[in-house]
Design a protein that fits this description.
This protein is an alpha/beta fold. The chain has helices spanning 14-17, 20-27, 64-75, 95-102, 119-125, 141-152, 200-218, 230-249, and strands spanning 2-7, 32-37, 50-51, 61-62, 82-92, 106-111, 128-131, 185-186, 189-190. Strands 2-1-6-5-7 form a 5-stranded parallel β-sheet.
Length: 250
């Protein structure tokens, strides 16, 4: 997969893209990620990329010309992929959308800044808008980093294990079960015995129950849309009875 990022602040990205899982995936050729500075494409004398908004108002707006020219240079005449603007009006990024994007051959991410982007640039150069949440950032660069990291985890081979992304929180609409590692006991707190006996069927059942418990306790709203079986619903009824003292104390 190739991902191009159009930004006026390319210096923000190397630390994120060159380390940990993303850095390793790039080294292995699983991901190709390039940052393009929009500023050199500006036709203005001082290479500025923003100007005052028509109609008045606070702040500056990114100009359409540098964005349009940068997008054309990056995409070329035979672009096959999706061009995305990181902005507050779009679909909210979630696991389902990340999986969908991971199936694309190419993504181009446009990072807005200041008070936003001239609408004509969005109309001409963008296929869709994606938001990472209902809050305000100083620019789209951080949102682009989040999207790249989230999508990359579903690109085959990036995590090293085909099962890894399917066992994490939100992969099946629920939060993940608790995790434990060595030592078996610390400060009087022990690892649950079921995880030590090697019975994989019992371990799977425990993990499912604890996943339901975590979701019920911390994000009960997810249960409204999660794909639950009849067995899950029975477990939830049991867990609701178990959790009542916890809820009443809060």
């Amino acid at each position: 997969m190739r991902i191009d990022i159009l930004t006026t602040f390319p210096e923000m990205f190397p630390g994120v893209l060159d380390t940990s899982i993303l850095g390793r995936a790039r080294q292995q050729g699983l991901l190709e990620i390039a940052c393009t500075d929009i500023r050199p494409f500006s036709a203005s004398k001082h290479k500025n990329t923003d100007d005052y908004p028509f109609g008045g108002g606070a702040g500056m707006v990114m100009m359409p010309q540098p964005i349009m020219d940068a997008m054309e240079a990056v995409c070329g005449p035979d672009f096959n992929g999706r061009r995305i603007y990181l902005g507050p009006r779009g679909r909210t990024l979630n696991t389902a959308l990340a999986r969908e994007l991971a199936r694309e051959e190419r993504l181009v991410l446009l990072c807005g800044h200041y008070e936003g982007v001239d609408q004509r640039a969005l109309d001409a150069c963008v296929d869709e808008e994606i938001s990472i949440g209902d809050y305000i950032l100083t620019g789209g660069e951080l949102a682009a980093m989040v999207l790249v990291d989230c999508v990359a985890r579903f690109v085959p081979g990036v995590l090293g294990s085909a099962e890894s992304p399917e066992e994490e929180s939100f992969s099946d609409g629920l939060l993940e079960y608790p995790q434990y590692t060595r030592p078996r006991e610390i400060r009087g707190m022990a690892v649950p015995e079921v995880l030590l006996n090697g019975d994989h069927a019992k371990i799977r059942a425990w993990r499912r129950r604890e996943s339901l418990r975590a979701t019920l306790r911390h994000r009960p709203d997810l249960l409204e849309t999660a794909p639950l079986t009849d067995k899950d619903r029975k477990l939830l009824r049991e867990l609701e009875e178990e959790e009542k003292p916890c809820f009443s104390e809060n």
